[in-house]
Specification:
The protein is of the alpha+beta class and 384 residues long. Helix content is 40%, strand content 23%.
């Protein structure tokens, strides 16, 4: 069971925020922290066996490390299984759980997308996979507009978080001819313009209340073009694409539209970023490429944006104080003199250090990943 004073969102989708990640990045406990990433297949009419899924992932945790702090791992494992058996209601396709009972840490995220299964018991939470998810998925607004209705939706991490409707009565088609018909047509055009202005004002209000990174606009051709024309520059610069569609698109279809645009946009942005960093590092500008220089810059707090490839883990050593890390087999921190600790995945350490120093994080894929992998798989844009 979770600690009594912990928040336990058992039956709702709870997505991580940047603030959540930074708080977890600062968390340390000599008692150990259990980090578990669980991914579930489609139910297909049957209740999913949460217990079996969790046991498969937890089975990867072995002994050693003083038998996992003399039984602390077993305590956390039992608490997690009891929670899944008694209190948990699955509402998404994956769950990420962090637990440290002696320190009262209990965090449950449910996501509408799969994650790579993982279990780790260490003095700090494993947050690099969550940071990668937040990097890939920006916050989108989708405006579906027609002559008398607009649907404004917020989409994040594979689900619709909020929907607002703007509805107006649209004048019917007149059977009159000549001058009367022309005047009535002008009246309909004016009504459409007023309706779209109302939708735009509501979208601006939504942007203030729940900021988003990009905007997609859908609907019939006439309404879509007219809506684009009334957008102020602050919204127009966020438009990532438009598409023809009816207003009754399902939430699933809307999320799939966002996913396709998001993936294409993200891959192109990653390719440009890696290209720019490689050029900057080659000319001696504020950028590093490779493990040695990037880890040193992270330890000194000079990194503005960390860029990592999703390749296999790189082992190394790191200072417990976060001042230094290296891929070399060293025993003592050259900065503070403390004994270095073994790190099974330096990319994970780098992400946590970046969060601790308020740096941005970019995880690259496909072509950008291949280009960065040729340069050791890690790079950074520097503050100074």
């Amino acid at each position: 069971m979770p600690p009594k004073d912990a928040s336990t969102p058992t039956g709702q989708l709870r997505a991580p925020t940047e603030r959540d990640l930074r708080r977890l990045a600062r968390f340390r406990s000599p008692h150990g922290v259990l980090s578990v990433y669980l991914s579930f297949a489609a139910a297909e009419g049957e209740r999913r066996d949460l217990h079996a899924v969790a046991l498969d992932v937890l089975h990867t945790l072995g002994g050693t490390a003083r038998e996992r702090l003399e039984g602390r791992l077993d305590e956390e494992r039992r608490g997690l299984i009891d929670f899944l058996n008694d209190d948990f209601e699955l509402a998404g396709r994956s769950a990420v759980i962090f637990s440290c009972r002696p320190r009262g840490l209990w965090v449950v995220f449910q996501l509408q997308m799969p994650v790579e299964p993982l279990a780790r018991f260490a003095e700090r939470p494993v947050i690099a996979p969550l940071a990668a998810l937040l990097d890939v998925h920006e916050r989108y607004a989708v405006a579906l507009v027609d002559k008398d209705r607009a649907r404004l939706l917020h989409v994040y991490l594979g689900r619709v978080e909020r929907e607002v409707d703007v509805v107006d009565e649209y004048p019917g088609r007149s059977k009159m001819g000549g001058w009367s018909e022309a005047r009535y047509s002008h009246h309909r055009d004016a009504h459409l313009h007023v309706h779209l202005l109302r939708a735009m004002n509501q979208l601006q209000e939504e942007a203030r209340r729940r900021p988003f990174d990009r905007l997609l606009i859908g609907g019939p051709d006439e309404a879509r073009a007219a809506f684009l024309a009334v957008l102020p520059r602050s919204l127009r610069t966020r438009v990532a694409g438009t598409f023809g569609a009816e207003l009754f698109l399902s939430e699933y279809e809307i999320v799939e539209r966002v996913r396709a645009v998001e993936e294409a946009s993200e891959r192109e942005a990653e390719r440009r970023l890696v290209s720019d960093i490689l050029d900057a590092a080659g000319s001696g500008a504020l950028a590093t490429v490779g493990w040695d220089d990037t880890l040193q810059a992270l330890g000194e707090g000079r990194v503005h944006k960390l860029v990592v490839a999703t390749e296999r883990p790189v082992r190394g050593s790191a200072c417990p104080a976060g001042d230094f890390a290296s891929i070399e087999k060293l025993s003592q921190c050259p900065v503070c003199g403390q004994l270095l600790q073994h790190v099974p995945d330096l990319a994970e350490w780098a992400v946590e250090r970046a969060l601790e120093t308020d740096a941005m994080i970019e995880t690259v894929h496909q072509d950008a990943e291949a280009a960065l992998a040729e340069e050791a798989g890690i790079a950074a844009v520097l503050r100074y």
